[in-house]
């Protein structure tokens, strides 16, 4: 009766496990990227619904459908989105906290109250640029920006 495995049997099992891991690992990374993309698309839909809810509230209160001037609260005479204030706080129940030096999540774009960026990955200097038009309430991925660090909107299917 055999009480132990031979060296060849152990090497054979390790090789098989290695092959399986090399096939499965890339799928796991793609799945994470897909999850981040799905979360981003969901947040974009929430922002669009929040903008419409804001306009509907204005219509009910004042009889005029008016979209918000900016997607963050104005502080004094400052026209951009302050780095310490939550973004989308006047349209979302749970506003997005600016990334404040972290390389992931939403942030204002160069203090422009009509532009926002989303960093999809940690430690990445690449981002998606989104523009907001207060006259129409349109919030969309900005494919016209000449920014070299901008990711293409086609990655999101937009």
Q: Which key features would you list for this structure?
A:
158 residues; four-stranded antiparallel beta sheet; 15% strand
What does this structure look like?
- This protein has 158 residues and is of the alpha+beta class.
- It has one helix at 7-62; strands spanning 105-109, 112-119, 128-133, 138-141.
- A four-stranded antiparallel β-sheet has the order 1-2-3-4, with helices on one face.
- Strand 1 and strand 2 form a beta hairpin.
- The termini are far apart.
- The model has no long low-confidence stretch (mean pLDDT 78).
**Major beta-sheet overview:** 4 strands, antiparallel
What structural class do the secondary elements suggest?
alpha+beta
Whole-Å distance between the termini?
Answer: 65 Å
Uncertain segments = none
Strand order of the largest sheet: 1-2-3-4
Shape: elongated
Radius of gyration computed on alpha carbons: 23 Å
Mean pLDDT: 78
**Count of alpha/pi helices:** 1
- Residue share in β-strands: 5-15%
DSSP strand tally: 4
As a percent range, the share of helical residues equals 25-40%
What's the order of the H and E elements? HEEEE
């Amino acid at each position: 009766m055999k009480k132990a495995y031979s060296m060849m049997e152990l090497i054979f099992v390790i090789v098989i496990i290695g092959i399986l891991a090399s096939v499965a690992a890339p799928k796991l990374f793609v799945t994470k990227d897909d999850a981040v993309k799905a979360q981003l698309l969901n947040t974009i839909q929430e922002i669009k619904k929040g903008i419409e809810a804001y306009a509907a509230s204005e219509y009910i209160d004042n009889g005029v459908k008016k979209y918000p001037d900016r997607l963050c609260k104005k502080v004094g005479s400052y026209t951009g989105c302050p780095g310490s204030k939550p973004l989308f706080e006047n349209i979302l129940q749970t506003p997005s906290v600016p990334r404040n030096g972290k390389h992931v999540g939403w942030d204002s774009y160069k203090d422009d109250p009509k532009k926002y960026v989303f960093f999809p990955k940690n430690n990445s200097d690449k981002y998606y640029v989104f523009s907001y038009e207060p006259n129409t309430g349109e919030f969309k991925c900005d494919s016209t920006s000449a920014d070299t660090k901008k990711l293409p909107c086609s990655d999101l299917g937009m």
